[in-house]
Amino acid sequence: MRNFHYPGRSPVITRNAMCATSHPLASLAAIEMLRSGGNALDAAITATAVLCVVEPAMTGIGGDCFALIAKPGMKKPIAMNASGHAPKAATADWYAKAGITTLPMQSPHAVTVPGAIDGWARLLKDHGTRSFADVLAPAIETAERGFVVAPRIAFDWASLTDKLKANPAATHHLLPGGRAPKAGEVIALPALAATLKRIADKGRDGFYTGEVAEDMVTELKALGGLHTLEDFAVQACSYVDPISVAYKGVDVWEMPPNNQGVVALVMLKMLNRFGRLGDGPQSVERYHVMMEAVRLAYAMRDKFVADPEMADVPVDHMLSDAFADELVSRIDRKVRKPDLGPIPVPGGTDTTYLTVVDKDGMAVSFINSIFSGFGSGIMARKSGVLFQNRGQGFSLDPKHPNCIAPGKRPMHTLVPAMAMRDGKPWASFGVMGGNLQPAGHAYVLSNMLEYGLDPQEALDCSRVFFEHGTCWAEHSVPEPVYRGLAELGHPMERKVDPWGGGQIVMMNHDTGTLTGASDPRKDGCALGY
User: Is pTM beyond 0.90 here?
Assistant: First the structure.
Protein backbone atom coordinates (compact mmCIF):
# COMPACT_ATOMS: atom_id res chain seq x y z
CA MET A 1 0.00 0.00 0.00
CA ARG A 2 1.29 3.45 -0.88
CA ASN A 3 2.24 6.02 1.75
CA PHE A 4 -0.69 8.45 1.88
CA HIS A 5 1.56 11.23 3.20
CA TYR A 6 3.17 11.56 -0.24
CA PRO A 7 1.79 12.77 -3.58
CA GLY A 8 0.34 10.11 -5.82
CA ARG A 9 -2.87 8.24 -6.39
CA SER A 10 -4.32 4.90 -5.50
CA PRO A 11 -5.16 2.18 -7.99
CA VAL A 12 -8.85 1.92 -8.93
CA ILE A 13 -10.57 -1.26 -7.72
CA THR A 14 -13.98 -2.41 -8.89
CA ARG A 15 -16.05 -5.54 -9.53
CA ASN A 16 -17.71 -5.44 -12.95
CA ALA A 17 -15.60 -3.85 -15.67
CA MET A 18 -12.53 -1.65 -15.95
CA CYS A 19 -10.68 0.45 -18.49
CA ALA A 20 -7.47 2.44 -18.33
CA THR A 21 -6.52 4.95 -21.04
CA SER A 22 -4.33 8.02 -21.43
CA HIS A 23 -7.24 10.52 -21.56
CA PRO A 24 -10.38 10.90 -19.38
CA LEU A 25 -12.68 11.30 -22.39
CA ALA A 26 -11.49 7.99 -23.80
CA SER A 27 -11.89 6.23 -20.45
CA LEU A 28 -15.40 7.65 -20.05
CA ALA A 29 -16.38 6.63 -23.60
CA ALA A 30 -15.17 3.08 -22.91
CA ILE A 31 -17.14 2.84 -19.66
CA GLU A 32 -20.28 4.18 -21.35
CA MET A 33 -19.91 1.56 -24.08
CA LEU A 34 -19.50 -1.18 -21.47
CA ARG A 35 -22.46 -0.01 -19.41
CA SER A 36 -24.65 0.10 -22.52
CA GLY A 37 -23.95 -3.59 -23.18
CA GLY A 38 -20.89 -3.47 -25.42
CA ASN A 39 -18.01 -5.83 -24.75
CA ALA A 40 -14.35 -5.09 -24.07
CA LEU A 41 -13.44 -5.05 -27.77
CA ASP A 42 -16.23 -2.58 -28.58
CA ALA A 43 -15.06 -0.39 -25.70
CA ALA A 44 -11.39 -0.60 -26.73
CA ILE A 45 -12.08 0.64 -30.26
CA THR A 46 -14.45 3.32 -28.95
CA ALA A 47 -11.72 4.59 -26.65
CA THR A 48 -9.03 4.34 -29.32
CA ALA A 49 -11.12 6.35 -31.78
CA VAL A 50 -11.59 9.09 -29.17
CA LEU A 51 -7.83 9.13 -28.54
CA CYS A 52 -7.28 9.57 -32.29
CA VAL A 53 -9.15 12.87 -31.92
CA VAL A 54 -7.96 14.21 -28.57
CA GLU A 55 -4.32 13.03 -28.70
CA PRO A 56 -3.39 13.80 -32.33
CA ALA A 57 0.34 13.96 -31.58
CA MET A 58 0.32 10.39 -30.30
CA THR A 59 -2.19 8.46 -32.39
CA GLY A 60 -4.55 8.65 -35.31
CA ILE A 61 -6.41 6.80 -38.03
CA GLY A 62 -3.33 7.26 -40.22
CA GLY A 63 -1.40 4.90 -37.94
CA ASP A 64 -1.21 1.19 -37.04
CA CYS A 65 -2.52 -0.97 -34.22
CA PHE A 66 -1.85 -4.26 -32.43
CA ALA A 67 -4.10 -6.13 -30.01
CA LEU A 68 -4.08 -9.08 -27.63
CA ILE A 69 -7.48 -10.49 -26.62
CA ALA A 70 -8.02 -12.97 -23.80
CA LYS A 71 -11.39 -14.65 -23.38
CA PRO A 72 -12.52 -16.89 -20.51
CA GLY A 73 -11.37 -20.48 -21.00
CA MET A 74 -8.58 -19.60 -23.45
CA LYS A 75 -5.07 -20.82 -22.63
CA LYS A 76 -3.40 -18.04 -24.61
CA PRO A 77 -4.54 -14.71 -26.05
CA ILE A 78 -5.59 -13.98 -29.62
CA ALA A 79 -3.07 -11.69 -31.32
CA MET A 80 -3.85 -9.21 -34.10
CA ASN A 81 -1.16 -7.50 -36.19
CA ALA A 82 -2.56 -4.47 -38.03
CA SER A 83 0.70 -2.86 -39.08
CA GLY A 84 0.91 -1.24 -42.49
CA HIS A 85 2.86 -2.45 -45.51
CA ALA A 86 5.34 -0.65 -47.71
CA PRO A 87 4.15 0.43 -51.18
CA LYS A 88 4.56 -2.15 -53.94
CA ALA A 89 7.09 0.10 -55.68
CA ALA A 90 9.30 0.46 -52.59
CA THR A 91 12.47 -1.51 -53.33
CA ALA A 92 15.97 -1.03 -51.98
CA ASP A 93 17.16 -0.72 -55.58
CA TRP A 94 14.75 2.17 -56.25
CA TYR A 95 16.03 4.10 -53.23
CA ALA A 96 19.65 3.41 -54.15
CA LYS A 97 19.13 4.69 -57.69
CA ALA A 98 17.35 7.77 -56.32
CA GLY A 99 20.32 8.49 -54.06
CA ILE A 100 18.21 8.04 -50.91
CA THR A 101 20.29 6.50 -48.12
CA THR A 102 17.95 7.15 -45.19
CA LEU A 103 14.20 7.51 -44.72
CA PRO A 104 13.71 10.94 -43.11
CA MET A 105 10.84 11.29 -40.66
CA GLN A 106 9.08 14.07 -42.58
CA SER A 107 9.34 12.33 -45.93
CA PRO A 108 6.58 10.41 -47.75
CA HIS A 109 9.04 7.51 -47.88
CA ALA A 110 8.67 7.18 -44.10
CA VAL A 111 4.93 6.55 -44.56
CA THR A 112 3.70 2.98 -44.81
CA VAL A 113 0.05 2.29 -45.63
CA PRO A 114 -1.96 2.91 -42.42
CA GLY A 115 -3.13 -0.38 -40.94
CA ALA A 116 -5.29 0.74 -37.99
CA ILE A 117 -8.69 1.05 -39.65
CA ASP A 118 -8.41 -2.34 -41.33
CA GLY A 119 -7.49 -3.80 -37.94
CA TRP A 120 -10.44 -2.13 -36.21
CA ALA A 121 -12.81 -3.46 -38.88
CA ARG A 122 -11.57 -7.04 -38.60
CA LEU A 123 -11.57 -7.03 -34.80
CA LEU A 124 -15.09 -5.61 -34.65
CA LYS A 125 -16.35 -8.19 -37.11
CA ASP A 126 -14.70 -11.13 -35.37
CA HIS A 127 -14.91 -10.20 -31.68
CA GLY A 128 -17.13 -7.16 -31.22
CA THR A 129 -20.88 -6.79 -30.84
CA ARG A 130 -21.37 -3.24 -32.13
CA SER A 131 -21.13 -1.56 -35.52
CA PHE A 132 -18.60 1.00 -36.69
CA ALA A 133 -21.34 3.61 -36.39
CA ASP A 134 -21.79 2.75 -32.70
CA VAL A 135 -18.13 2.65 -31.69
CA LEU A 136 -17.13 5.76 -33.67
CA ALA A 137 -20.03 7.93 -32.49
CA PRO A 138 -18.21 9.43 -29.44
CA ALA A 139 -15.11 10.24 -31.53
CA ILE A 140 -17.20 11.85 -34.26
CA GLU A 141 -19.04 14.02 -31.75
CA THR A 142 -15.77 15.00 -30.07
CA ALA A 143 -14.13 15.96 -33.37
CA GLU A 144 -17.19 17.93 -34.53
CA ARG A 145 -18.04 19.79 -31.33
CA GLY A 146 -14.46 20.20 -30.18
CA PHE A 147 -12.58 19.11 -27.07
CA VAL A 148 -10.65 20.81 -24.30
CA VAL A 149 -6.90 20.36 -24.77
CA ALA A 150 -5.38 18.58 -21.76
CA PRO A 151 -2.08 19.68 -20.16
CA ARG A 152 0.24 16.89 -21.37
CA ILE A 153 -1.29 17.06 -24.85
CA ALA A 154 -0.72 20.82 -24.93
CA PHE A 155 2.91 20.26 -23.96
CA ASP A 156 3.46 17.77 -26.78
CA TRP A 157 1.58 19.94 -29.30
CA ALA A 158 3.63 23.06 -28.53
CA SER A 159 6.94 21.20 -28.70
CA LEU A 160 6.13 19.98 -32.23
CA THR A 161 4.91 23.24 -33.77
CA ASP A 162 7.80 23.54 -36.22
CA LYS A 163 7.16 20.02 -37.49
CA LEU A 164 3.53 20.85 -38.26
CA LYS A 165 4.47 24.13 -39.91
CA ALA A 166 6.50 22.20 -42.50
CA ASN A 167 3.29 20.79 -44.01
CA PRO A 168 0.53 23.18 -45.23
CA ALA A 169 -2.34 20.80 -44.48
CA ALA A 170 -1.04 20.05 -40.99
CA THR A 171 -0.65 23.77 -40.37
CA HIS A 172 -4.21 24.41 -41.52
CA HIS A 173 -5.85 21.71 -39.41
CA LEU A 174 -3.63 21.52 -36.34
CA LEU A 175 -2.29 25.03 -35.81
CA PRO A 176 -5.39 27.25 -35.63
CA GLY A 177 -4.28 30.88 -35.72
CA GLY A 178 -0.76 29.70 -36.56
CA ARG A 179 0.04 28.25 -33.13
CA ALA A 180 -0.52 25.17 -31.03
CA PRO A 181 -3.58 25.27 -28.77
CA LYS A 182 -2.90 25.83 -25.09
CA ALA A 183 -4.13 23.72 -22.20
CA GLY A 184 -7.76 24.56 -21.56
CA GLU A 185 -8.48 25.79 -25.08
CA VAL A 186 -11.10 24.10 -27.25
CA ILE A 187 -10.28 22.78 -30.72
CA ALA A 188 -12.44 20.98 -33.28
CA LEU A 189 -11.27 18.76 -36.15
CA PRO A 190 -14.13 18.87 -38.70
CA ALA A 191 -12.23 17.19 -41.56
CA LEU A 192 -11.34 14.26 -39.32
CA ALA A 193 -14.96 14.09 -38.16
CA ALA A 194 -16.13 13.83 -41.77
CA THR A 195 -13.67 11.02 -42.47
CA LEU A 196 -14.78 9.14 -39.36
CA LYS A 197 -18.38 9.48 -40.57
CA ARG A 198 -17.43 7.88 -43.89
CA ILE A 199 -15.80 4.99 -42.04
CA ALA A 200 -18.87 4.66 -39.81
CA ASP A 201 -21.04 4.45 -42.92
CA LYS A 202 -18.88 2.36 -45.26
CA GLY A 203 -16.54 0.47 -42.93
CA ARG A 204 -12.92 -0.06 -43.98
CA ASP A 205 -13.78 0.79 -47.59
CA GLY A 206 -14.64 4.30 -46.46
CA PHE A 207 -10.95 4.70 -45.70
CA TYR A 208 -9.04 2.46 -48.12
CA THR A 209 -11.06 3.22 -51.26
CA GLY A 210 -13.00 6.18 -52.61
CA GLU A 211 -12.41 9.86 -51.88
CA VAL A 212 -10.51 9.43 -48.62
CA ALA A 213 -7.99 7.05 -50.21
CA GLU A 214 -7.71 9.33 -53.24
CA ASP A 215 -6.98 12.30 -50.98
CA MET A 216 -4.28 10.39 -49.09
CA VAL A 217 -2.57 9.05 -52.21
CA THR A 218 -2.71 12.46 -53.90
CA GLU A 219 -0.96 14.09 -50.94
CA LEU A 220 1.77 11.45 -50.72
CA LYS A 221 2.44 11.31 -54.47
CA ALA A 222 2.67 15.11 -54.67
CA LEU A 223 5.55 14.88 -52.19
CA GLY A 224 7.31 12.14 -54.16
CA GLY A 225 5.83 9.09 -52.46
CA LEU A 226 5.47 5.72 -54.21
CA HIS A 227 1.98 4.99 -52.86
CA THR A 228 -0.90 3.97 -55.13
CA LEU A 229 -4.63 3.44 -54.66
CA GLU A 230 -3.98 -0.29 -55.03
CA ASP A 231 -1.53 -0.20 -52.09
CA PHE A 232 -4.33 1.15 -49.92
CA ALA A 233 -7.03 -1.13 -51.29
CA VAL A 234 -5.07 -4.33 -50.56
CA GLN A 235 -3.91 -3.42 -47.04
CA ALA A 236 -4.80 -6.33 -44.75
CA CYS A 237 -4.22 -7.16 -41.10
CA SER A 238 -3.53 -10.68 -39.87
CA TYR A 239 -3.90 -12.89 -36.84
CA VAL A 240 -0.55 -14.15 -35.56
CA ASP A 241 0.67 -16.58 -32.91
CA PRO A 242 1.68 -14.71 -29.74
CA ILE A 243 4.94 -15.64 -28.01
CA SER A 244 5.57 -16.07 -24.29
CA VAL A 245 8.00 -16.80 -21.48
CA ALA A 246 7.44 -17.63 -17.80
CA TYR A 247 8.40 -14.94 -15.27
CA LYS A 248 7.90 -15.04 -11.49
CA GLY A 249 4.84 -17.27 -11.62
CA VAL A 250 3.08 -15.77 -14.65
CA ASP A 251 3.18 -16.45 -18.37
CA VAL A 252 3.90 -13.21 -20.21
CA TRP A 253 2.46 -12.97 -23.73
CA GLU A 254 3.75 -10.58 -26.39
CA MET A 255 3.37 -9.98 -30.12
CA PRO A 256 5.82 -11.85 -32.39
CA PRO A 257 7.99 -10.13 -35.02
CA ASN A 258 7.68 -7.86 -36.97
CA ASN A 259 6.87 -6.53 -33.50
CA GLN A 260 9.53 -5.90 -30.85
CA GLY A 261 7.63 -7.80 -28.13
CA VAL A 262 10.36 -10.45 -28.22
CA VAL A 263 12.69 -7.84 -26.66
CA ALA A 264 10.56 -7.73 -23.50
CA LEU A 265 10.58 -11.51 -23.27
CA VAL A 266 14.36 -11.73 -23.66
CA MET A 267 14.80 -9.11 -20.94
CA LEU A 268 12.49 -11.03 -18.59
CA LYS A 269 14.42 -14.27 -19.20
CA MET A 270 17.60 -12.41 -18.32
CA LEU A 271 16.10 -10.88 -15.17
CA ASN A 272 14.89 -14.31 -14.07
CA ARG A 273 18.53 -15.40 -13.96
CA PHE A 274 19.66 -12.48 -11.78
CA GLY A 275 17.06 -12.69 -9.04
CA ARG A 276 16.38 -9.65 -6.87
CA LEU A 277 18.57 -6.69 -7.73
CA GLY A 278 19.52 -4.13 -5.10
CA ASP A 279 17.47 -3.15 -2.07
CA GLY A 280 14.47 -1.84 -4.02
CA PRO A 281 13.13 -0.82 -7.42
CA GLN A 282 15.14 2.45 -7.41
CA SER A 283 18.52 1.02 -6.51
CA VAL A 284 21.71 1.60 -8.48
CA GLU A 285 22.21 -2.13 -9.06
CA ARG A 286 18.66 -2.60 -10.36
CA TYR A 287 18.94 0.22 -12.90
CA HIS A 288 22.50 -0.78 -13.84
CA VAL A 289 21.64 -4.39 -14.68
CA MET A 290 18.46 -3.29 -16.47
CA MET A 291 20.48 -0.97 -18.71
CA GLU A 292 23.04 -3.65 -19.54
CA ALA A 293 20.15 -5.99 -20.39
CA VAL A 294 18.59 -3.24 -22.52
CA ARG A 295 21.79 -2.81 -24.49
CA LEU A 296 21.98 -6.52 -25.28
CA ALA A 297 18.27 -7.12 -25.94
CA TYR A 298 17.91 -4.13 -28.24
CA ALA A 299 21.05 -5.05 -30.16
CA MET A 300 19.36 -8.44 -30.69
CA ARG A 301 16.25 -6.65 -31.96
CA ASP A 302 18.21 -4.55 -34.43
CA LYS A 303 20.00 -7.63 -35.75
CA PHE A 304 17.09 -10.04 -36.13
CA VAL A 305 13.60 -8.51 -35.97
CA ALA A 306 11.84 -8.13 -39.32
CA ASP A 307 8.67 -9.19 -41.13
CA PRO A 308 8.66 -13.00 -40.77
CA GLU A 309 6.62 -13.33 -43.97
CA MET A 310 9.56 -11.94 -45.93
CA ALA A 311 12.63 -12.73 -43.80
CA ASP A 312 14.03 -15.51 -41.63
CA VAL A 313 13.47 -14.33 -38.05
CA PRO A 314 14.98 -16.80 -35.49
CA VAL A 315 12.38 -16.43 -32.71
CA ASP A 316 13.16 -19.85 -31.17
CA HIS A 317 16.83 -18.93 -30.99
CA MET A 318 16.07 -15.56 -29.36
CA LEU A 319 13.85 -17.18 -26.71
CA SER A 320 16.12 -20.16 -26.00
CA ASP A 321 17.67 -20.72 -22.58
CA ALA A 322 21.12 -20.92 -24.16
CA PHE A 323 20.69 -17.47 -25.71
CA ALA A 324 19.59 -15.95 -22.37
CA ASP A 325 22.45 -17.67 -20.54
CA GLU A 326 24.98 -16.30 -23.01
CA LEU A 327 23.66 -12.72 -22.70
CA VAL A 328 23.56 -12.86 -18.90
CA SER A 329 27.14 -14.13 -18.75
CA ARG A 330 28.28 -10.87 -20.36
CA ILE A 331 26.80 -8.60 -17.67
CA ASP A 332 28.88 -7.51 -14.68
CA ARG A 333 26.60 -6.53 -11.76
CA LYS A 334 29.21 -4.07 -10.48
CA VAL A 335 30.37 -2.09 -13.53
CA ARG A 336 29.27 -1.08 -17.02
CA LYS A 337 31.14 -2.82 -19.80
CA PRO A 338 31.89 -0.51 -22.75
CA ASP A 339 31.60 -3.46 -25.14
CA LEU A 340 29.12 -6.27 -24.45
CA GLY A 341 30.16 -8.24 -27.52
CA PRO A 342 28.35 -9.40 -30.65
CA ILE A 343 24.87 -10.92 -30.54
CA PRO A 344 24.96 -14.73 -30.79
CA VAL A 345 23.50 -16.00 -34.06
CA PRO A 346 21.69 -19.32 -34.54
CA GLY A 347 23.68 -22.18 -35.93
CA GLY A 348 23.42 -22.23 -39.73
CA THR A 349 22.25 -18.92 -40.32
CA ASP A 350 4.90 8.67 -29.16
CA THR A 351 1.84 6.20 -29.00
CA THR A 352 -1.40 5.49 -27.08
CA TYR A 353 -2.01 2.30 -25.17
CA LEU A 354 -5.23 1.25 -23.43
CA THR A 355 -6.69 -1.81 -21.81
CA VAL A 356 -10.28 -2.88 -21.10
CA VAL A 357 -11.78 -5.81 -19.17
CA ASP A 358 -15.53 -6.40 -19.36
CA LYS A 359 -18.04 -8.02 -16.99
CA ASP A 360 -17.75 -11.37 -18.78
CA GLY A 361 -13.98 -11.53 -18.33
CA MET A 362 -12.84 -10.59 -21.84
CA ALA A 363 -9.57 -8.63 -21.60
CA VAL A 364 -8.24 -6.47 -24.43
CA SER A 365 -4.70 -5.08 -24.57
CA PHE A 366 -4.72 -2.51 -27.37
CA ILE A 367 -2.20 -0.10 -28.82
CA ASN A 368 -2.63 2.42 -31.65
CA SER A 369 0.01 4.88 -32.80
CA ILE A 370 1.47 7.17 -35.45
CA PHE A 371 4.99 6.53 -34.05
CA SER A 372 6.82 9.86 -33.59
CA GLY A 373 5.08 12.96 -32.30
CA PHE A 374 2.55 13.84 -35.04
CA GLY A 375 4.01 10.96 -37.05
CA SER A 376 5.55 12.09 -40.32
CA GLY A 377 4.01 15.54 -39.95
CA ILE A 378 2.33 14.98 -43.32
CA MET A 379 -1.45 15.39 -43.49
CA ALA A 380 -3.98 14.83 -46.26
CA ARG A 381 -5.75 18.18 -46.58
CA LYS A 382 -9.34 17.15 -47.40
CA SER A 383 -9.66 14.11 -45.15
CA GLY A 384 -7.61 15.38 -42.21
CA VAL A 385 -5.64 12.11 -41.98
CA LEU A 386 -2.20 12.55 -40.40
CA PHE A 387 0.28 9.91 -41.56
CA GLN A 388 2.58 7.84 -39.36
CA ASN A 389 6.30 7.45 -40.05
CA ARG A 390 6.59 3.70 -39.56
CA GLY A 391 8.75 3.34 -42.68
CA GLN A 392 11.62 4.56 -40.52
CA GLY A 393 11.57 1.11 -38.96
CA PHE A 394 13.05 -0.28 -42.21
CA SER A 395 16.68 -0.63 -43.17
CA LEU A 396 17.87 0.30 -46.68
CA ASP A 397 20.69 -2.25 -46.53
CA PRO A 398 19.79 -5.03 -49.01
CA LYS A 399 21.65 -7.56 -46.84
CA HIS A 400 19.63 -6.80 -43.70
CA PRO A 401 16.53 -8.95 -42.96
CA ASN A 402 14.60 -5.75 -42.21
CA CYS A 403 15.42 -4.11 -45.56
CA ILE A 404 12.46 -2.37 -47.20
CA ALA A 405 10.64 -4.38 -49.87
CA PRO A 406 7.30 -4.26 -51.70
CA GLY A 407 4.41 -5.06 -49.36
CA LYS A 408 6.75 -5.65 -46.42
CA ARG A 409 6.03 -4.60 -42.83
CA PRO A 410 8.79 -2.76 -40.92
CA MET A 411 10.20 -3.65 -37.53
CA HIS A 412 7.52 -2.23 -35.26
CA THR A 413 7.73 -0.71 -31.78
CA LEU A 414 4.05 -1.03 -30.75
CA VAL A 415 3.80 -3.61 -27.95
CA PRO A 416 0.60 -4.62 -26.15
CA ALA A 417 1.07 -7.30 -23.50
CA MET A 418 -0.87 -9.80 -21.41
CA ALA A 419 0.18 -11.88 -18.39
CA MET A 420 -1.66 -15.05 -17.38
CA ARG A 421 -1.52 -17.00 -14.13
CA ASP A 422 -2.77 -20.57 -13.79
CA GLY A 423 -4.23 -20.35 -17.29
CA LYS A 424 -6.30 -17.24 -16.55
CA PRO A 425 -5.67 -13.59 -17.48
CA TRP A 426 -3.84 -11.88 -14.63
CA ALA A 427 -2.81 -8.51 -16.09
CA SER A 428 -3.49 -6.67 -19.33
CA PHE A 429 -0.90 -3.94 -19.69
CA GLY A 430 1.30 -1.79 -21.87
CA VAL A 431 3.86 0.99 -21.58
CA MET A 432 4.11 3.68 -24.25
CA GLY A 433 7.23 5.48 -25.36
CA GLY A 434 8.63 4.26 -28.69
CA ASN A 435 11.74 2.15 -28.18
CA LEU A 436 11.21 2.22 -24.41
CA GLN A 437 8.17 -0.06 -24.57
CA PRO A 438 9.71 -3.55 -24.09
CA ALA A 439 11.94 -2.25 -21.29
CA GLY A 440 8.83 -0.62 -19.82
CA HIS A 441 7.15 -4.02 -19.74
CA ALA A 442 10.11 -5.47 -17.88
CA TYR A 443 10.07 -2.54 -15.48
CA VAL A 444 6.40 -2.75 -14.50
CA LEU A 445 6.32 -6.54 -14.24
CA SER A 446 9.42 -6.70 -12.07
CA ASN A 447 8.09 -3.76 -10.03
CA MET A 448 4.98 -5.82 -9.21
CA LEU A 449 6.34 -9.36 -9.07
CA GLU A 450 9.85 -8.76 -7.71
CA TYR A 451 9.42 -5.66 -5.55
CA GLY A 452 5.76 -6.00 -4.52
CA LEU A 453 4.47 -2.68 -5.88
CA ASP A 454 0.80 -2.30 -6.71
CA PRO A 455 -0.10 -1.52 -10.37
CA GLN A 456 -0.23 2.24 -9.82
CA GLU A 457 3.09 2.28 -7.96
CA ALA A 458 4.58 0.10 -10.69
CA LEU A 459 3.68 2.71 -13.32
CA ASP A 460 4.69 5.67 -11.14
CA CYS A 461 8.19 4.30 -10.48
CA SER A 462 11.07 6.25 -12.06
CA ARG A 463 12.53 4.94 -15.32
CA VAL A 464 16.02 4.86 -16.78
CA PHE A 465 16.58 3.86 -20.39
CA PHE A 466 19.62 3.52 -22.64
CA GLU A 467 19.12 4.97 -26.13
CA HIS A 468 21.32 6.55 -28.82
CA GLY A 469 24.48 6.09 -26.75
CA THR A 470 23.13 7.79 -23.64
CA CYS A 471 21.60 6.53 -20.41
CA TRP A 472 18.56 8.76 -19.86
CA ALA A 473 17.10 9.19 -16.37
CA GLU A 474 13.79 10.77 -15.48
CA HIS A 475 13.95 13.77 -13.15
CA SER A 476 12.43 11.66 -10.37
CA VAL A 477 15.43 9.32 -10.25
CA PRO A 478 17.15 10.25 -6.95
CA GLU A 479 20.39 12.17 -7.32
CA PRO A 480 22.48 9.58 -5.38
CA VAL A 481 21.20 6.87 -7.74
CA TYR A 482 21.95 9.06 -10.77
CA ARG A 483 25.51 9.66 -9.53
CA GLY A 484 25.92 5.98 -8.68
CA LEU A 485 25.08 4.96 -12.23
CA ALA A 486 27.56 7.49 -13.58
CA GLU A 487 30.24 6.08 -11.29
CA LEU A 488 29.59 2.61 -12.76
CA GLY A 489 30.41 4.03 -16.20
CA HIS A 490 26.97 4.86 -17.62
CA PRO A 491 26.88 8.01 -19.81
CA MET A 492 24.10 9.74 -17.85
CA GLU A 493 21.74 12.54 -18.87
CA ARG A 494 18.45 13.76 -17.42
CA LYS A 495 15.42 13.30 -19.69
CA VAL A 496 13.94 16.65 -20.71
CA ASP A 497 10.51 15.67 -22.07
CA PRO A 498 7.89 13.52 -20.32
CA TRP A 499 8.53 9.88 -21.14
CA GLY A 500 5.75 7.73 -22.49
CA GLY A 501 2.96 6.43 -20.29
CA GLY A 502 1.24 3.16 -19.48
CA GLN A 503 -1.94 1.43 -18.34
CA ILE A 504 -2.65 -1.74 -16.35
CA VAL A 505 -5.76 -3.71 -15.45
CA MET A 506 -5.19 -6.64 -13.08
CA MET A 507 -7.73 -9.42 -12.59
CA ASN A 508 -8.11 -11.08 -9.18
CA HIS A 509 -10.06 -14.28 -9.82
CA ASP A 510 -10.22 -15.15 -6.12
CA THR A 511 -12.05 -11.97 -5.10
CA GLY A 512 -13.74 -11.23 -8.42
CA THR A 513 -12.26 -7.73 -8.52
CA LEU A 514 -10.40 -5.65 -11.09
CA THR A 515 -7.58 -3.22 -10.30
CA GLY A 516 -6.76 -0.44 -12.76
CA ALA A 517 -3.87 2.00 -12.99
CA SER A 518 -2.97 4.84 -15.35
CA ASP A 519 0.42 6.47 -15.78
CA PRO A 520 0.82 9.97 -14.26
CA ARG A 521 3.03 10.93 -17.19
CA LYS A 522 -0.17 11.29 -19.23
CA ASP A 523 -3.54 12.98 -18.68
CA GLY A 524 -5.53 9.74 -18.39
CA CYS A 525 -7.18 7.65 -15.73
CA ALA A 526 -8.53 4.23 -14.90
CA LEU A 527 -12.31 3.96 -14.51
CA GLY A 528 -14.52 1.06 -13.51
CA TYR A 529 -17.93 0.18 -12.23
Answer: yes
